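FORM 7B - TANDEM STRUCTURE REPORT

SECTION 1: FIRST PROTEIN
SEQUENCE AND TOKENS:
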Amino acid sequence: MKNKEIQEQRIKGYFLQATKDLLKSEGLQSVNVRNIADRAGYSYATLYNYFKDINDLVFLCVYDFYGECEQHVREHTKRQERGIKRLRASIRAYVDFFVQYPGIFSLFFMENLGSFKDKGRATEIISFSLDKVCEEEWNYCVSKGILQVEQVELIKSQIRHATLGLLMLYINQRVSFPYTELINRLYLQTNAILESCSPGGGRDGGGVSVHNSLISIKVK
């Protein structure tokens, strides 16, 4: 790689990191050309030498943030037993990532993406991010007969909507319960969905599960 190309990539990286830092700390409302340029240490005119507009930068941030979320989930679940246990752990790690970075959650799920040049691609990355970070375990559970292949898409959809709903309420402070209660409710919801759809109740052993949105009781 030539020196000019190396310098170009480095300057692009400064602008990208500056945008990511603003999104994480202050949200999309803080992202404008001058703020990005100030944080990157360059003039705002320089930004347009490397990017068409701010939307280009924000889309790259979406892609990078998804990669960070995926890495976070992988790092926090690699020691878990494969199957349902790692699937549950992956869902929790996904939630923990957004609790740690509420600005990213706001960008992903609360901002209008209508002006994005690559709106369709960005929407797909965002909307199915939970499914994707758990994809290996979904496939593993199907391959081992833990979950039935014809039900997996329904289970994914139910868990995705329940998880994002909880996060939306928690991050927007529409509920008063603490983080520990968030995780407790996450487990209850996840268990209820898995137990209602999987041949073995999503657990080892037999028995019949009785559950609703607040309780999950296994009757031997």
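SECTION 2: SECOND PROTEIN
SEQUENCE AND TOKENS:
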Amino acid sequence: MDGEYGKISCIIMASGLSERYGKNKLLEKLGGQEVILHTAGSLAGAEFSPVTVTRSAEVKALMDQEGFACILHDGPKKSDTIHVGIEHTSPDTAGYLFMPGDQPLVRPESLKKMAEQFLRSPDRAVRLSFEETPGSPVLFPAFCREKLIAYTGDRGGIEVLKAEHIPCDCVEAEAAWELWDVDTPESMEKVRKVLAESAGTDCPEYFTGGEKK
């Protein structure tokens, strides 16, 4: 990101084993494009420069091919992914946006709204929500760095948010499907249905490198 937005680091969490899905869900095709590229493309469309953290050599190769920064590691826990991501961000960052790799329908506009809310109150976390129910992604203030690095669990940064009682604002998504992930084949079919129903419309929008698909 340029200007003020450029102070926010963005980490795509892509280290899961897709056990509930049965195969690597991040490489499944949606509208001719892999799930992980939909997610990264939406972030690029919001002018973020994400770094993907993964245990998959195939995901690493794909991201390298498409020009997205990607780190390959072998840590088994979500906390390992968090630590590797933070290690590859600027020490001067204003905040950390953690984006699940399997959340392909999030809109660039919602991501921009999150960044704008955070920059208004940089001492507060920000979560994307729908109808006042918070979800992912989550944007953490820079002062959470040491708390995130000290975290050793496997449920993600939300545990840090709750345990440390970090104040948090919610930004409302335009639609519930922005918060959907693709943990199972059934949830993937729901996502495919949204794509099919939106064909030929302006919503949802999918980006790769800032270009609309």
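SECTION 3: OBSERVATIONS ON SECOND PROTEIN
The chain is about 30% helix and 25% strand.
The first helix runs from residue 35 to 45.

SECTION 4: SIGNATURE
Preparer initials: ____
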